[in-house]
């Protein structure tokens, strides 16, 4: 059979875009670029999910999520972020932020529409836009300005088909935390040009030094034009449980619901009870995790300073965006050679678009002693390239 005849143009546009996933761990490889945190949520969260199974809470829930979780999220948004929403009409519990992004872009984009975003950026946004016949317009940022967007560049990228601006802070892959003044400029631009802002805040808990996470929706006049996306994956070590949420104006939430329903009906019921448990208790336990990630961040910076490779200041999230241009290799060449010659795994900076060429994404997610062993190998490997 010629299966190509059956595969939609939409699917063909996307074929190969994910690359190949290695699902079997390979002996001796150390992944220094992984986006998966290396900790679990507290035991009471696991217990809550076991309890949900034991008591048979495994049927469909309300499409937008169980009321207990919606209320807990609304309370969290109010007390931690300063965002006030009605949990009954302005919130959808999703299967991770990933579903939230797709539902959001499905709701915003018609064929030929676009959204703009500072780049390097999280790669899924461009795939989602492409699936929908729309476009993600990347606006390049540079290491020299620490990957902070120049709002004039954002403005120049706006077309008459632009529906919104995607802001991810703290950022994957650059580790940049946008300061309040830049968020205000973006907000001002959105208001002037009458655009929506999609604010992906899934790394909100990972902020280092004096950097602060500020939710876009709390800036003056922004609540009505902000779609806030968040997730339990990164903050609570729950990536495989697939739990996230969208908070948005009620008319937008209403328009999103058929897409959420078509893909998921509802988020996993058991996982939702885990979400209630993690949200209902103090998040004090996380400060220990953050301190450990900060220790690794400092070790990364020390290593890079020692070998003389520049990098964007890792201000938040758990990534270090490393400038490998002094080695003379492209991102992909560096990643390939690091794998075969040093048994190290990284993400090429180009997964975040063309502006990431010449960079690799390192991460803070590997624990001791492999982390230190990985850094030693990295030092030797780069030392060899630079000598
Ligand atoms: C910026 C960003 N948004 C969304 C996601 C998706 O996260 P989730 O596990 O909640 O689907 C990721 C995952 O790496 C991410 O880095």
Walk me through this protein's architecture.
By secondary structure, this protein is an alpha/beta fold. It has two domains: 3-41 and 285-386, Aspartate Aminotransferase, domain 1 (Alpha-Beta Complex), CATH 3.90.1150; 59-280, Type I PLP-dependent aspartate aminotransferase-like (Major domain) (Aspartate Aminotransferase, domain 2), CATH 3.40.640.10. It contains 13 helices and twelve strands. The strands form three sheets. Strands 2-8-7-6-5-3-4 form a seven-stranded mixed β-sheet, with helices on both faces. A three-stranded antiparallel β-sheet has the order 9-12-11. Helix 4 (96-108) packs across helix 5 (124-131). The longest helix is centred in the C-terminal third of the chain and has 23 residues, at 285-307. The radius of gyration is 21 Å and the shape is globular. The relative contact order is 0.17. It binds pyridoxal-5'-phosphate. The site of pyridoxal-5'-phosphate has 13 residues, from helix 4.
């Amino acid at each position: 059979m010629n299966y190509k005849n059956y595969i939609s143009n939409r699917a063909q546009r996307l074929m190969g875009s994910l690359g190949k996933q290695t699902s079997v761990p390979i002996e001796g490889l150390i992944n220094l670029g992984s986006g998966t945190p290396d900790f679990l949520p507290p035991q009471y969260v696991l217990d809550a999910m076991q309890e949900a199974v034991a008591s048979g809470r495994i049927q469909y829930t309300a499409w937008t999520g169980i009321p207990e979780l919606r209320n807990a999220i609304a309370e969290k948004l109010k007390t931690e972020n300063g965002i006030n929403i009605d949990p009954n009409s302005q919130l959808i519990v999703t299967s991770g932020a990933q579903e939230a992004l797709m539902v959001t872009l499905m709701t915003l984009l018609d064929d030929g529409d676009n959204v703009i975003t500072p780049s390097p950026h999280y790669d899924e946004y461009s795939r989602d836009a492409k699936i929908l016949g729309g476009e993600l317009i990347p606006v390049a940022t540079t290491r020299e300005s620490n990957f902070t967007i120049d709002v004039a560049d954002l403005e120049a990228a706006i077309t008459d088909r632009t529906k919104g601006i995607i802001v991810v802070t703290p950022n994957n892959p650059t580790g940049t935390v946008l300061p309040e003044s830049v968020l205000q400029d973006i907000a001002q631009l959105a208001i002037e040009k009458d655009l929506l802002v999609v604010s992906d805040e899934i790394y909100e808990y990972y902020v280092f030094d004096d950097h602060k996470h500020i939710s876009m929706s709390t800036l003056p006049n922004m609540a009505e034009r902000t779609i806030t996306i968040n997730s339990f994956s990164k903050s609570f070590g729950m990536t495989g449980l697939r739990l996230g949420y969208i908070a948005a104006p009620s008319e937008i939430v209403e328009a999103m619901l058929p897409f959420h329903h078509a893909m998921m009906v509802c988020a996993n019921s058991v996982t939702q009870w885990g979400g209630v448990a993690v949200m209902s208790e103090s998040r004090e336990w996380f400060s220990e995790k953050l301190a450990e990630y900060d220790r690794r961040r400092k070790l990364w910076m020390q290593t890079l300073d020692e070998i003389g490779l520049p990098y964007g200041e890792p201000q938040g999230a758990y990534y270090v965006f490393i400038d490998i241009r002094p080695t003379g290799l492209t991102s992909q060449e560096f990643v390939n050679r690091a794998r075969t010659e040093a048994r190290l795994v990284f993400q090429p900076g180009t997964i975040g678009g063309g502006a990431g060429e010449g960079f690799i994404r390192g991460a803070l997610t590997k624990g001791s002693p492999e982390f230190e062993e990985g850094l030693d190998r990295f030092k030797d490997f780069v030392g060899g390239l630079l000598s």
